[in-house]
Design a protein that fits this description.
CATH topology: Purple Acid Phosphatase, chain A, domain 2
Strand order of the largest sheet: 1-15-14-3-4-5
Organism: Caenorhabditis briggsae
GO molecular function: hydrolase activity
Number of strands: 15
Structural class: alpha/beta
CATH architecture: 4-Layer Sandwich
Protein name: Serine/threonine specific protein phosphatases domain-containing protein
Shape: globular
Pfam families: Metallophos (PF00149)
Largest sheet: 6 strands, mixed
Number of domains: 1
Strand content: 5-15%
CATH superfamily: Metallo-dependent phosphatases
Number of helices: 15
InterPro entries: Calcineurin-like_PHP (IPR004843), Metallo-depent_PP-like (IPR029052), PP1_catalytic_subunit (IPR050341), Ser/Thr-sp_prot-phosphatase (IPR006186)
Amino acid sequence: MALRAIMKEVSAKKLSVKKRKLKNSAEKEVKDENHYELADFVVRHFRIPNWREYNGIKYYPKELVAFLTDVIEVFRAEKTLCHISPPVTIVGDLNGHLQDLVRIFNIKNEKALKEEDGKQVFATEKFVFLGDLTGENQKYNLETVCLLFGLKMLYCNRYILLRGYEETRSNTEFRNQIMSKFPGAAGEDIWSKFKTAFSLLPAAAIVGEKILCVHSGISPLVKRSIGELKEIPKRDTFENLAPIVRDVIFARPCEPEEDGADSEDPLYIFHEPTNTRKFNDAAIKHFCEKEKIDLVVRSHAVLSNGFRFSADKKLITIFSSPSYKDMPNKGAFLRVSQEGVVSIIQLRPTDKNENPEDKKKKKKKSGETGKPESAEKEKRSKEKPKKGSRSTVSESREKGSKEKTEEGDKKKKKATSKPKSREIESLYDNLSEK
């Protein structure tokens, strides 16, 4: 499988849903607090008119316990090493960024755009998430994890959720948030279920037999092949990790200035703070050659551009949480095509409290169109239309071919009859197609 990287940059896209009467009862209060309907449970997470007014989801303790009990059995059935075939989307650390997760689900691949496929991305594509689903100072950790767990249950073979650093900590902000929302025994019960679910997450995934996905690193303890991970039993205990699994979750690449980083010999250096190892570029190259893989994909690092290559492009680090802790960093995720072509898609930082309608008004005032500035200047110099002049606009349109005009008219008709962002009713249709 030949690999080549294609880079794209994607601006913010938000799920805009009109408040309409639904065929199903997703907008109604959950009447039975002891049970949950899986499709309704997932759809509730997409019901976001705008982010400024969004206050999260009201969960009931018994509902969550029932949901997590089922999730645990799904993860228990998986091996420590999973396999998935392309095409697939690979997402790095989310750190509880629910808005950015929804943005990723709203960005369609080229094939879907060409075919004008109306199906939702979350229901049709395959995904690998590299761990760290929750994070510090994030309001929607619970919603982020519950949405991903719900999608895992609905589309079991299409979603792989790997265990990350945040899924190995016993005293996290996530626990504190749960205890704040569900005080007393109910909160302890829910946290206990989450700990068990996290302990059963797989440690690594292989895409198309050529791309290894891990949370952080590689291990010298792999003697024969990475397939040895399959034989490592997952444990219901939270902290006790098998040595290879610990390396996969905690081991990290050497920084360029660190001792041994530029050595031509494969080196694994013990890192005392995490009780695991660091590895140099030579170790990655040797590992890829030995395992016959083309690329290792990891996360577990904040990056200004959202991604970074190393080891002669045998290793790529991606980070999918733009504006992490209010920093101006971009996010990034990968798309692997059927042929093994790897595309890097960047996510720009967004104002998480901004109303989409306010943003549209700002664009109109500033003349922002999303096109390059040079292209806009050229267009203005050619057309120079007067305000309110219909003739100048129509003349500029006539410069195009007749086919383009007709095609544009068709698109306009479609836009007026059917909004681009689909209604919640269509989410139910997608959920029924596994």
